[in-house]
């Protein structure tokens, strides 16, 4: 339970940060949205999150390309059934390959391109993350046994990312490329930890007593 609540969120945040830093145009659009909704004279609060559709698309695109775990928690069939011509006996252990689902070329075009805009709903509307009725992405599984912590997890991930992108500009250290090699396991983190340079972009008083703004940038 502890791993499911913490490791998956940290893995998701690191993948979002890596892909956004690798794609500066995405970072600029996130910050433009944050400046329009939040401004630069206060911090992001939870009530702002519903008004940040592009950031929500960024998280959803990260779930598509880099799900926190390559497989969902195993399920077991209760009775014999047939799905798309395949016979599934009763008491069969079933694994859902969510990594392959997010890179299925029959569903997605340009599967290896990080393009959050693909998730913007036609005609506007809320960008869903934890409740995805189309089954194209299943970060929290689906149905009666979906992750009960999905709403909380989405809020925590969005809040952390919104604060990081709102407060800082981000760039690779020494202009290096951002590595996106994956490691397969119970979760799917980056093969190499993310290193990036953070440069404050808000007025100095917004950073409190930490003094981060006075240092003109800090490698983390």
Automatic annotation (TrEMBL):
It comes from Eleusine coracana subsp. coracana. GO terms for molecular function: heme binding; iron ion binding; monooxygenase activity; oxidoreductase activity, acting on paired donors, with incorporation or reduction of molecular oxygen. Keywords: Heme, Iron, Metal-binding, Monooxygenase, Oxidoreductase. Belongs to the cytochrome P450 family. The keyword Metal-binding applies. The lineage of its organism: Eukaryota, Viridiplantae, Streptophyta, Embryophyta, Tracheophyta. InterPro entries: Cyt_P450, Cyt_P450_CS, Cyt_P450_E_grp-I, Cyt_P450_sf. This is Uncharacterized protein. Its cofactor is heme. Heme binds at residue 147.
